[in-house]
Design brief:
By secondary structure, the chain is an all-alpha fold. It is 76% helix and 0% strand.
C-alpha cells in the first residue's frame, strides 16, 4: 500500500471516529432520548438543532467520499480491517474528551485490535 492510499484510509478512519465523537457531544445536552410516533418530529428537530450532531453527520458524508476514493486504490480485504483503528481512536478520545473509563480489558482489546491491523497490513 502506498502512502497516499494509507493517508486516505487514515483520513476515513479519523473522519468516522470524529463523527462518533461529535454525535456524542451533541446528544449529551439532550439527555436520554425517547422516540415514538407521537414525538418523532419534535425529537428529530431537537437532535438536528445541535450543531455537533450536524457536524458529525457531515463528517460521515465526507468519510464515505474519502473511503470510496481509498477503495479505488486498495483491496477491500486490506482497507476494511483498517477501519478497526477507529475503535482505538474513539476509546482514547472518549477517555480524553468525555472522561470515559479505560480499564485493563479495554486496553487489552485496543492492543489486540492494533496487533490485528498490523498483521493484516503485512500480508
Amino acid at each position: 500500500m502506498n502512502l497516499t492510499a494509507f493517508l486516505l484510509i487514515l483520513a476515513g478512519v479519523l473522519l468516522n471516529a470524529g463523527a462518533q465523537l461529535l454525535l456524542k457531544a451533541g446528544v449529551g445536552p439532550l439527555g436520554t432520548l425517547s422516540v415514538g410516533l407521537e414525538n418523532l418530529v419534535p425529537t428529530t428537530l431537537r437532535v438536528l438543532g445541535q450543531w455537533p450532531i450536524v457536524a458529525g453527520l457531515v463528517c460521515y458524508v465526507v468519510s464515505v467520499g474519502v473511503w470510496i476514493v481509498a477503495l479505488s486504490r486498495v483491496e477491500v480485504s486490506l482497507a476494511y480491517p483498517m477501519l478497526s483503528l477507529g475503535y482505538v481512536v474513539n476509546a482514547l478520545a472518549a477517555w480524553w474528551l468525555f472522561g470515559e473509563a479505560l480499564g485493563p480489558m479495554r486496553w487489552a482489546g485496543m492492543l489486540l485490535i492494533l496487533g490485528g491491523v498490523l498483521l493484516m497490513s503485512r500480508t
